[in-house]
Backbone:
């Protein structure tokens, strides 16, 4: 696979790992942002030009695009063994600076947000980017790549429980603002 296609594939895989679902029968990408859905389809067609999409909107008014193709699913499972959120790890196939950048960019499109926090030493409000996942290992992988490859300072991973007894792990990228 040439480098351009590998860069596009990094975005596709990241979107599926974050706001997607990949089973042995189908893959599905969900997002409330129609632009992200359209971009996902555009990237997908660049690598898999004859893809048939099933599109729709679910009850919570979230757009989705779905593909049922065994060959594509086999390729995806060769890159990521388990797409369930608590078992995610950064795919080793994306080893260049450019593929890592595209993967992380798509990750922040889906799972990132801008946060405000109080810096207690100076009593200042600071802005930062946050990303959340159920997989601590996945976030440790992303944090390592941001710090090592892109020299972006990140703070420690923080775990918290939500109201309905699911835990999420969060870290902030502090040096961007």
Residues:
């Amino acid at each position: 696979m040439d480098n351009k296609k590998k860069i596009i594939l990094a975005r596709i895989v990241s979107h599926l790992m974050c706001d997607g679902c990949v089973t042995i029968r189908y893959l599905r990408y969900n997002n409330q942002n129609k632009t992200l859905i359209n971009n996902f389809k555009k990237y997908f067609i660049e690598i898999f030009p004859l893809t048939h999409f099933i599109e729709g909107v679910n009850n919570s008014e979230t757009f989705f695009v779905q593909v049922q193709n065994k060959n594509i699913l086999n390729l995806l499972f060769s890159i990521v063994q388990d797409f369930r959120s608590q078992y995610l790890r950064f795919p080793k196939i994306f080893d260049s600076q450019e593929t890592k950048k595209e993967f992380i960019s798509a990750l922040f499109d889906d799972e990132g947000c801008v946060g405000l926090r109080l810096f207690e030493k100076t009593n200042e409000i600071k802005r930062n980017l946050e990303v959340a996942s159920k997989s601590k290992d996945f976030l440790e992988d992303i944090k390592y790549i941001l710090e090592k490859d892109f020299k972006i300072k990140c703070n420690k991973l923080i775990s918290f429980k939500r109201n309905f007894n699911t835990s999420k792990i969060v870290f902030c990228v502090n040096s961007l603002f």
In short: Helices lie at 3-19, 34-47, 70-79, 97-111, 136-150.
